[in-house]
Design a protein that fits this description.
disordered C terminus, single chain, 2 helices, mainly beta
Length: about 170
């Protein structure tokens, strides 16, 4: 079974598949899956605004996410939150991107992204991987903190950190 998606997955929306949209059987919170965890997109909150694609990736090149994953090595550099949004309203829409430990239910947007009216607007936020190892959640919210996208991911220990030596 292929562990990395070959292209940006088209996540299922909650209206297409029910509460576990695109996630299949949920992974127990205490386990660290080896397979890619698909994002869950809620599309019923903002009329005229639809999340077309979402991905966590190690980079974005030529406006496309590369090395999409739900596992990132601790302190390995930036992690990119890629969004492709259809905004069919007449106004700009502000989306908030926030991160939290999976065990913490408090929400908060850390990065604000403005999406102008457009049938297909791509944007991204960048975060670091200096977070403590464990299970984390990335959430994209509207200004009222209604969650539009949820993506579980893991920060895994760097195997080289324990064996690294310093020259004295």
């Amino acid at each position: 079974m292929d562990e990395e998606p070959p292209t940006v997955p088209a996540p299922a929306t909650s209206s297409e598949t029910g509460a576990a949209a695109g996630a299949g059987a949920p992974t127990p919170p205490s386990s660290e899956p080896s397979e890619y965890i698909r994002p869950v997109i809620q599309d019923e909150f903002l009329e005229g605004v639809r999340i077309l694609r979402f991905a966590l990736a190690e980079d974005v090149i030529e406006r496309e996410p590369v090395m999409i994953s739900s596992r990132f090595r601790h302190n390995s550099g930036p992690m990119h939150v890629f969004l492709e949004v259809a905004n069919q309203t007449a106004d700009d829409v502000t989306l908030l991107v926030g991160f939290r430990r999976a065990s913490d239910q408090r929400r908060g947007g850390g990065v604000s992204l403005t999406v102008p009216p457009s049938p297909r607007y791509r944007t991204r936020a960048r975060a670091n991987t200096r977070r403590a190892p464990g299970e984390w959640v990335c959430e994209v919210m509207d200004e009222r903190q209604r969650v539009l996208v949820t993506q579980r991911f893991f920060i895994v220990p760097d195997p080289n950190a324990a064996t690294a030596t310093t020259d004295e």
